[in-house]
Request: fold
Amino acid sequence: MRGLAARDVLAEAVERFHPRLVMACSFQKEESVLLDLLLDVEPAARVFTIDTGVLFGETVETWRAFEERWGVKVEVVDAAADPPWTGGAHCCSNGAKAAALETALQGVDAWITGLRREQAPTRATVEAFERDEARGIWKVNPLADWTEQDVWRHIAERGLPYHPLHDRGYASIGCATCTLPGAGREGRWAGEDKTECGLHAPPNAGATAAASTPGEA
Ligand code: SF4
Reply:
């Protein structure tokens, strides 16, 4: 049922916005599910990732596995040229990743994310369709009401590739410089007071839960 509902959300997003629609991909378990559903709805859907240059080797392996499984070419926004990750810094601090997101979202009407409400208090109010007022576009979160168990069930049932670090205690995976093993988001931004990389913070900045779907707006 979860898969059908999420697929319906994606089908509506594709109908309304493709090809001015992009999916953000960080190669975590949620993206295994999203790619499986989205590319079934629209094989030519656009997918992008932000390459900080300090990704885990396992993230790059998963990237290749995703491209092989689905025959998709993931578009790359390069955030590695800026040097926030050099000099021993754990977390970046100059907003390079957030700036890269703005580059990725230029010219689109909507973007798809793997946000789930149970991931963090900052995500507790996420809705399937949200108006991203700051950018004047839509934000689509098909897995908003999925539990972690839902995600793993879909991956198992479909035999999907997934990030191998999940099996080594990393529930949430960011850059190698600032991600440790941990449940939930415990391993993220180790030793820092950050709660987001800047892509969705402050909580859904500029985005408000939609009272209606885009088609009814
Ligand atoms: S995980 Fe986020 S905060 Fe940490 S270095 Fe990467 S982009 Fe920066």
Remarks:
- The CA atoms of residues 90 and 178 lie 5 Å apart.
- Residues 2-216 form a domain with the Rossmann fold fold (CATH 3.40.50.620).
- The chain has a mean pLDDT of 86.
